[in-house]
Write a structure and sequence with these properties.
- It is a single chain.
- By secondary structure, the protein is of the alpha+beta class.
- It has two domains: 3-19 and 234-430, Enolpyruvate transferase domain (UDP-n-acetylglucosamine1-carboxyvinyl-transferase, Chain, Alpha-beta prism); 22-231, UDP-n-acetylglucosamine1-carboxyvinyl-transferase, Chain, CATH 3.65.10.
- The chain has twelve helices and 23 strands.
- The chain has helices spanning 22-31, 48-59, 100-107, 127-135, 167-178, 193-204, 236-248, 264-271, 319-328, 347-352, 384-395, 416-422, and strands at 3-8, 14-16, 39-42, 63-67, 72-76, 109-113, 139-142, 146-150, 159-161, 183-187, 208-210, 216-220, 228-231, 253-256, 275-280, 283-288, 304-308, 331-337, 356-361, 364-369, 377-379, 399-404, 426-430.
- The strands form six sheets. A four-stranded mixed beta sheet has the order 21-22-1-23. Strands 2-14-16-15 form a four-stranded mixed beta sheet. It has a four-stranded mixed beta sheet with strand order 4-5-3-13, covered by helices on one side.
- The protein is globular and about 65 Å long.
- Bound molecules: uridine-diphosphate-N-acetylglucosamine (UD1) and phosphoenolpyruvate.
- Uridine-diphosphate-N-acetylglucosamine is lined by residues 23, 26, 94-95, 123-125, 164-169, 310, 315-317, 339-340.
- Residues 7-420 form the Enolpyruvate transferase domain.
- Its EC number is 2.5.1.7.
């Protein structure tokens, strides 16, 4: 079990160049399988999920040249072969489900194992995906340990309205539609920055997509896709994470950010804890005047609150980062996760630090922040940014803390500990058995 050992209490300051967004990189990696031409990706992060997908591609016979030192991936799915009886898609990551459309397009069959749940955030349905596959004419068969999805010919265009704006379902819809015959329409499409980045990549391959960034996507099918070179942009999750780490420890961190137009709501969320974010010259900077303090709402007798939901709301994956700020900032805040029903069950870990946090129901947590904190040994659930939130609390608390089961961080954030050390943190991985 990978543990993080943190000697907290040091103000973290400095500059960070963030990596690419895992949730943009993974669907794009899956989509490379849709073209028989070479693709070059620039800025590919060295993270667990990327390595798992590249390993699968190698086992299918694709040409994969990955240089993590430069972040350049050259990939060519020319002599690629997939056998649903033999090959298993990577487990413990949600993105495996996005291999289905390209496998269907290339081989007429795909198989997914039962564990495409990813982070343990509560129910993560596959029904919206099944509806999409079926709307394009694919057949879905349930087996003992997974699903077999088949199609006898090219997919046919579909018009579909999803129950909710789902990130991976939207990406799967686009991948089914790009090579389908006719024009497809998706209503209630997700519009997160990573979904937009994914659509830009598809357009570079020659896909004909309208409505990127809105809740209505149209895709006119094309006969074939080309190759090309694509450069990833910065991950807003990393930007927020490092800004928050600076703020919670009383330091001052700047992070490179070429898309500040995505940040107004994120900035206002930081401001609720007394953190001022500024964007200038391609850099975002977090500053705290005095100590962290929850801003009182203008409306009297209500709790300050942070609501997370599909974009353009505050992204749910960022909620734990703000919960950590809520633990440190003096005052009370209600956090509302409108997406997941099992993402907040870690209040008992927070309380080991002396934090006061109350789980009101599966979707809502209230922090009573500003209480004295003590170092602690805590265990993270399999949720990337909960491990980071626990680390944030450890980093602002004097003394030695241990975050057990911290390896999910490696699923999304390359060189995380090295980056933190460059800001002055005393932190290290411990891989020893207990
Ligand atoms: C690889 C990838 O891109 N993973 C991200 C993707 O997962 P993913 O695409 O799996 O997330 P979805 O948007 O489908 O939502 C996940 C689950 O939340 C529930 N749900 C969601 C929205 C809603 O309005 N109502 C509702 O009930 C459903 O149970 C659903 O199964 O988007 C999530 C939500 O931004 C992020 O946490 C994940 O990091
Ligand atoms: C929940 C996440 O990833 P996944 O969907 O792969 O579990 C995440 O990136 O925070």
């Amino acid at each position: 079990m990978s543990k993080l050992i943190v000697h907290g209490g040091t103000a973290l300051s400095g500059r960070i160049i963030p990596s690419a967004n895992k949730n943009a990189v993974l669907p794009i990696l899956c989509a490379t399988l849709l073209t028989r031409h070479p693709v070059r990706l620039v800025g590919v992060p060295e993270i667990t999920d990327v390595k798992k997908i590249l390993e699968l591609f190698r086992s299918l016979g694709s040409q994969v040249e990955m240089d993590f030192a430069t972040g350049i991936l050259d990939i060519h799915h020319k002599d690629t072969l997939f056998d649903p009886a033999r090959h298993r898609l990577p487990e413990e990551m949600r993105s495996s489900i996005m291999l289905v459309p390209p496998l269907l397009a290339r081989f007429g069959a795909a198989r997914i194992e039962n564990d495409v749940q990813g982070c343990t955030l509560g129910a993560r349905e596959i029904d919206p995906h099944v509806e999409v596959f079926e709307s394009f004419g694919a057949k879905v068969h349930r087996g003992i340990d997974g699903l077999l999805i088949t199609s006898t010919g090219p997919l046919t265009a579909a018009s579909h309205w999803t129950d909710y704006a789902s990130v991976t379902t939207t990406e799967n819809f686009v991948m089914c539609a790009v090579l389908a015959q006719g024009e497809s329409t998706l209503m209630n499409a997700a519009s997160e920055p990573h979904v937009q980045e994914f659509c830009r990549f598809m357009q570079m391959l020659g896909a004909n997509i309208g409505g990127t960034g809105t809740s209505r996507l149209t895709v006119a099918g094309v006969d074939t896709l080309r190759g090309g070179e694509f450069h990833f942009t910065e991950d807003f999750h990393e930007i927020v994470t490092f800004l928050a780490l600076g703020a919670i420890t009383g330091g001052e961190v700047s992070v490179r950010n070429s898309s500040p137009e995505q940040f107004p709501l994120i900035d206002r969320s930081f401001a609720k804890f007394g953190v001022r974010i500024t964007h200038e010259g391609g850099w975002s900077r977090a500053q705290v005047d005095g100590k962290l303090k929850v801003k009182e709402p203008f409306t009297q007798h209500i709790l300050q609150k942070i609501e997370a939901a599909p974009w353009p709301y505050l992204p749910v994956d960022l909620l734990p980062i703000f919960i950590a700020l809520g633990v440190k900032a003096e005052g009370s805040v209600m956090f509302w996760n409108k997406v997941y029903d099992g993402a907040l069950g870690w209040t008992s870990e927070l309380s080991k630090f002396g934090a006061h946090a109350f789980l009101s129901d599966p979707h809502r947590m209230v922090t009573f922040g500003g209480k004295p904190l003590v170092p602690a040994e805590v265990e993270s659930p399999y949720i990337i940014r909960v491990a980071i939130a626990l680390l944030m609390v450890a980093a602002c608390t004097h003394g030695r803390s241990v975050i057990r089961n911290a390896s999910p961080i490696r699923r999304a954030h390359p060189r995380f500990v090295e980056n933190l050390r460059s800001l002055g943190a005393q932190i290290e991985w411990d891989e020893s058995e207990d």
